[in-house]
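Morning run. Coffee first, then this:
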Amino acid sequence: MPKDQVDKASDAVEKAKPQSAVAALFEDAYENPGTTAMVVGGAAATIGLIAASRGRLAKMLPGGGRDGILLVEDTPFMGKAFKHVLEEQGEKVTWFTGIKKLQPFTGITNDGKELVIQPNKFKFAFVDGELTGSRHQGEHVVDALKSSNLTSFGTSTIRDINLAMRTNGAALTGEKPAVLTALVNRTLDLRLVTSAPAKVQLQMDELMIKLRTPAMDEARKKADDVLHKFLLD
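And here it is:
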């Protein structure tokens, strides 16, 4: 075939490709190196897959399917309580009791194992401010997670520690009694943590003020009952 015909045929093929989808795929690969092999090794097949089934492809790409919520909490009974109420709401929870490395992000799971994760695969993270025995404290963790494009919700019973986490990268913070009460009573919409953190922050601040009033007795008791269950566990 003459060269001009080959060129025209190549141009026609290029125009037939879903350009925006292919570009998005490669951009994802650059942001998430783990997908690069998939892109390079199967580009032609992937182009067809994009056209044939966007839904299935979305599950293969970072952001299309999430690994649930990351929980960083060193106190066993508090970690169990948070994990329990989140799982009751249908969330998958990865629980770290400490952070060994910030890059690559490596945590110690609640059963003592080291686990390396890609933070941007998670929906968001609950991060304890004080991590006993961990090289990295809450303020360092939220900074690292922000750099990895993961939203952090800082939790501490100490106001100054929450302030330090907000300063260092947490999108919002809440004192643990308020956060647990909101979770147990399902007044915290988890979807808003990433989409409207300022709104959630206002709710947390208002809840902490109201928490010790008679109007909150029933809600507080439900949260206390969950906590006591795991205190005795």
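Strands lie at 69-72, 93-102, 105-109, 114-116, 125-128, 152-155, 172-174. Good start to the day.
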